[in-house]
Structures are given as C-alpha cells and as structure tokens.
User: What shape does this take?
Amino acid sequence: MAGRSINRVFWGLLIGSFAFALVFSAIAVWITSKPFLADTQKQAIMSQAKREAARVDALLDPSVSLTAFLATEPSLVSFVMGDQARDDAFVDRLSNTILPQEVTEFFVFDFEGQPISFHIVSPQAQSMELAAGAADLAAFVLSTGEPTVRTIDSYRAVQSGTQELLIAAPIRNRGFAEGVLVTVVFIPFETDTISDGTSSMYARIVDPSSNWALVSAGQGAINVPIEATGLILSVKSEASLFRQIGQALVIQTILSIAAALLLPFAVFGWLGKQSILLPHAEMEMSRNKLREQQKELKELAAIAERAGEAILITDLDCRIMWHNPAFENISGYTSEEIRGQLPSKLLQGPNTSAEARAQIRAALQAFEPITIEVLNYRNGTEEYWIQLSISTMFDDEGQPYGYMAISQDVSDRKRDEANLLATTSAMEWQALHDELTGLPNRRYFNTTFDEICANPDKTRALAIVRIDLDHFKNVNDTMGHEAGDLVLCEVARILREEIGPDDVPVRVGGDEFIVFMTVDGTLQKAQILATALLKRIAEPIEYEGKSLRYGASFGIASSSCKLVAHSDLVRAADAALYIAKERGRNQVVCYGTEEHRQVNEVRATAELIRVGLDRGEFEPFFQPQFDAKTRRIVGAEVLARWIHPQKGVVLPSEFLQVAQQLSMLTILDKIVMEKALRHVAELEDLGLTLPRVSFNVTADRLCDPELLIAVDARPFRHTKMSFEILESVFLDDQPEYLDFNLDRLRDKGLSIEIDDFGSGHASMISLMRVRPDVLKIDQRLVFGAPHSRVCRNMVRSIIGIADSLDIGVTAEGVETQEHADMMQEMGCETLQGFYFSEPMRFEDLCVFLSAERQKHMQIAQ
Assistant: This one.
C-alpha cells in the first residue's frame, strides 16, 4: 500500500509540476510577445501600404507623362492660342493615342483659367462633379507654371475602393503658360479586405498638408509617399488579427512547452520508477521507423518515376547512377546512353554560359545546394533551357555520398521573356524617337536636357541650335505631304552627318529641329555648325523629277556667353530664332548681348502690358472720316492707345507687336471695343450721333463668338458699325469659317472694310470671295501720289478695281490739301488723315463734333 501511495504522490507531484510550468511559461510568453505582435501587425500594414503606393505610383506615372506630352501637342497649343476655333485636331490626336485605362476625361482651360473644352474617354467619367476641382487646379498651375497632381476628396469614392485624381500640365507657347490641360485619372485600390477576413484596410490618396493627412495620422493610419506625384497614400486598418494571433500563440506556446517538458519529466519518471520498459520501447520504435522509411522510399520511387521533372542521381564523381523517364524525354537520350555519363559532357554545349558552369562546379565542391537556369542541348543539337536544382545527399553519419539533380524545361518561358524584352525595348525607343525621321523627340530632349542642367559640368559649354524650316508649308501645299516628309527626312540626314558624336539632334515637332551640343557647345562652334547646316539645307533636292527648294532659320544660345542660366538656353535660342525670322529668314542669329537686351525689353513691355490691361490703361481714340465732296464728317475709325502713367500716350507701334506675341491682341481689341461702344452710346445721348464707327479686328477676333454677342448688345441704335481687316489677314488660304463669320456680321447690318489695301497681300480671287464694302488705300500710296507717277497709277488701279466690283474707296494718310483734292479727283469717296484731324480722345471728339455741327449749321443758314 505504501508503495502504491508513494507512486501516486510521485506521479501527482510530477503532473502538478508539469501543469504549473506550462501555465507560468504561457503567461511569460504572452507578456513578452505582446509588443512584438503589435509591431509585427504594424509592419505588415506598412508593407502592404508601400506595395499599394508603388502600384498607384506605377498607374499614375504613364498618365503624368501623357498629360505633359499632350500639353505640348501643337494642335492643342493652336486651339488654346485661338489659332483654331475648335479642337478637332486634338480630339483626333486623342483617338490615335493609346490612353492608360485609368484616364477617364480631359479638361482644357485658357490662360485665364476658363474651361474651353472637355473630352470624355471612359464611361467612368464624372465631368459635372470634377469641373470645379479641375478649374481650381488650372488656376493654380497658371500661377505656378509647373505640372501638378491633386486629389478630389470623395467619401463615396474611398468606400468603393477607388479615387479620382487630377493631373494638370501647363500648355506653353514660346515659354509662357497660355492654358492648362487637366487629366482625370480613376485609381482603384487593392487594400479593401485581407483574404482571411480578419482585417479591413481602407486606402485614400491625400495631400501631405491636408487636414485629412493630419487626422488620419492621429488615428493610427499609415502614410506612404507616392513618388511620382508628391502626394501620400493613407492606409487605415481595423483588425482583429492581433487578438487571434495572441490566442493562437498562447495555445501553441502551451503545446510547445508541453512538448519541451515531456523529455525532462520523462527522465524524472524513468529515474524514479527505474522502468525496464524503455529498451523494449526504443527497439519497437526503431522497427516502426524502419518500416515507415521503407514505405516512404517506395512512395518516393513511385513519385519520381511518374514526375514531370527530370531527376538524376549521381555519385561524388558526378557519374549518373539513376534517372527517371522524364529525364530521357527532356534530354532526348536513351537509358543506355545516359547511365555512367557526366551530365556536363552529355547535356552542355558551346553556348552554355561559362559563368553558370563555374557556379555549379563551386556548389558541388562545397556540397552546397544550388538552383540555376542553364542552356542545355537535346541530343547534342537542339538548344533548350532548364531550371536546375542540385543538392548533396548525406548518409546517417553526415558524410556525402552523391548528388541529386531535379530539372524542368523552361524554354517557353525564356522565349516569352526574350520577346517581352524586345517588345519593351522597341516601345521605349518609339516613345523617345520621332517615327518619321528616327531622330530623338521632344520627350527625349527634355529628359536629357533636364538631367544635364540638373548636374552641369562647369568645364564644358552647352549650346542649343534651334532650327525652323522656311516656307516648308509651301512644299506641303504645292507638292504634297509626301514631299514634305522627304524634306524632313533629308534634314534629319543632314543633321546626323554634320553634328559631332556627342551632339543630340532632335525633331521637336512639325518643321522644327534642335541640336543640343552637350560637350563643346561654345558660341563659335555652334555658329560654325549652324552655318554648315544652313548651306546644306539650302541645296535643292529632287522629287518626282522636280527640284524642291527650301531654307531654314537658326537661333543659337550658348552657356559660354554667360547671359542666361543653363535651364534658360532653350528659351534664349527661341528668342534668337524669332529675331532671325524677323530679319528675313534663312540666316543664323546668335543670342548675344544685343539680343539679350531686346528680349529683356520685350519681357518688360509684356509685363507692363499685362499690368496696363489689369488697370484699364488702354483707351479708344477716334479719327474722323470725311466725305470727299462735301467734306462733312461721315464716320470715325477707332484706334487703340495706351495711356501710360509715366510715358503718356503710347502709339500702337510700340506695343501691338509684343501684344501679338503674347496672344493678348484679341483681349486688347475686346477691351478697346467695349469702351468705344459705350462712348458711341454716350454721343447719341448727347445728340452728337456719328454716322458710322469702324473697328480694326484681327482674324482671331473675327472668329471669337463673343464678338457677335458684343455686336448684338451694342448700346446705340443710329450709328452704323464697320469692321476693318488688314489686307495681310485677307489671304487666299484663310479658313472657310472666316467667310461664314463675315456673312453673319453682314446679316447683322455691319459693313466690312479692307485696311491697308495695296500692300501686296490680297489677290483678286480672294477679293471677289470676301466681297468687302470698302477698300482703304494704303497711306503710303496716298502720301506718294502727288510726287510719284507709280503711286498715282496704283491709286487709279485700286479705284478702278473697286468701281468694277461696286466697292467704296477710302483714302488714308491725307495730310495736305493737295492730297485731299487729288484723291477726290481720282474718285475716292471718303478721306481720312491728319489734314482733317488726328486721332483724339472721346472728350475731344465731343468738342470736335459739336464744332462741326455748328459750322455746317452756319453754312446752311
């Protein structure tokens, strides 16, 4: 009995101690592992957030690049500048461009931040919801001049796992932001719910400085930057995974500690009981283990025989001792040909990588496992790729006795990878090169230029040679676009032959080229290159038995002159090119001290013009027109004058050209016209009605829909209106919609006059097409008529043409009595010039009209 009691006490203490150790070990593990579990959970969320941010970055990058690229599209620039009334060319460009599937729509804004068009490219578009955000972003980009990516806050979008972003890029013309292109991107998220259902993760793209970013950070969200945009991805997790892992850890800990304590407690039991059963139990376990191993070997042999992978067993000398049928199928050899052979001699050939062989040899010598892809030969002739895994086999004493190699044919994957690499390389080349000429394109140039300017080498000079072909449009119009393409390819060939090995030739678009001299870009070297190019481009080329002649204008800017920063070289070269065209084309102009001064003057004038427009400093002046016979006033021409606070009255010759370069001429015309229309209404209220008032308008202004609105809303009834169009605008190649707008103006009771007629731009065909009401003879012909027979004959010819077409004639520049009498005798109906009156302010016009009315009343009496 005592023995049994002691036995029960012993086993009771042993079991109690075992349970006590388990409980306190589990508590200790839980206390020490809790912080680690929390940190692990946070790291898991951070890892997933980074992957999601990288994926979003990869989705956004093509859209950012596409927006920047489309913002430089010539057709879009022309539309924003007002050169085109509609953006059909840009729509065609979009239809021919492979757009990222995330892009849903495009907004286009003018330089005032007003929307002028939008284009939906996806059924997910939400134009009405996003228009306000796009307008705010456009205003921001116009103020900064830099591309920007911005979020659109939408609680609904976050809950559905998606979010819209706006990508904006300035639309530039000659270095100025004249509009903005805004792209809407629809971003899906992949972080909604983890597969085990224990954690829900919500993502949102936010601006780092926004309230959302601050609030989300305070609530434990993970914020990860998105490199391509400057935004951040905020990820928040609501998880019960931590509790489940902790519970599982406690259970696993109890089980693990129980397993760990079994051996020492078993030893205690054995020492206490001195059992004789252990040797017998060990012997039985050995027998069972042997039976299990034999069973496993049979199963493994059967699996190896049926495996699709090729399996080899070799001795330490790498001689093949055993192989499965799959190895015969892959290698093309029979069992007799394989046994006892060396795999390297049997399978490898001349194109097998020497490096791969060396890696396999080193692994075998070190008895280390290796996995590698190797080129093998089937039957010694046909190449194929395998993925090879080799491991060393050890006996029970840990000594190596052979090697096992498992391989599978991966030729199809390697071939697909090679094809994908070739396709990717071709696409990258096409994205960075002009399809027609093969030259690098604007995107390639911008990337290269930005990289070099970001890290300039002060020991070498950079130069930009800007090239614009002269009269290239004539080649396209007269010989066809194939001839134009031939010219562009010929110019590309000349550039390749003439430039240095380190120079970069670029076709930036249309008939414009750039040579970027990256090593020896001194002004002298650039001028020598441009002169050589000018000479070769001037040489005619043959096309379908005809000789094609064209020329080019060159603008050069070099950092060696130290006039502008590296990043402003392109703008300086543009300015030099513009001067070359002004001087008559077909020449080389270097951006030097004088050109720098002119550019600064133009910039200063441009800034003053902008300020003047904001302050309302541009006013209408009126120059009266008189009947040639009665010498009574029959109308007045409205002329723009700049009332500068310091300079006083500034004539149009000092600001019109700059305003035209800035594309602000239409705005200036609009402001002056609005003021003039109010003044004419005031004249009617004073009883000093003008018979007719005429306005000078540009072609862009004629195509402006707001012009017709202003005409319909004119605040007077008796004064007739007339529009004067410069003869230089009145050309044969003007678009048909110009004729349509002129007809609409005539329907509203307006007359059309051709200003400066006789300067040599208009043809008889175009004159008959437009059918103007009045021809205003160029003042240079009128001024020279008393002293030049040629001028008199020209005046008579113009009057004869007008009579034959039943068109009125007005003589400008009448400065003397002799001019007035001669023009009257020749048949002019209306006279205008300093002889009668200079252009005057509205207040002076009121006095002048009162005096004229009083004078004619006295004559009548």
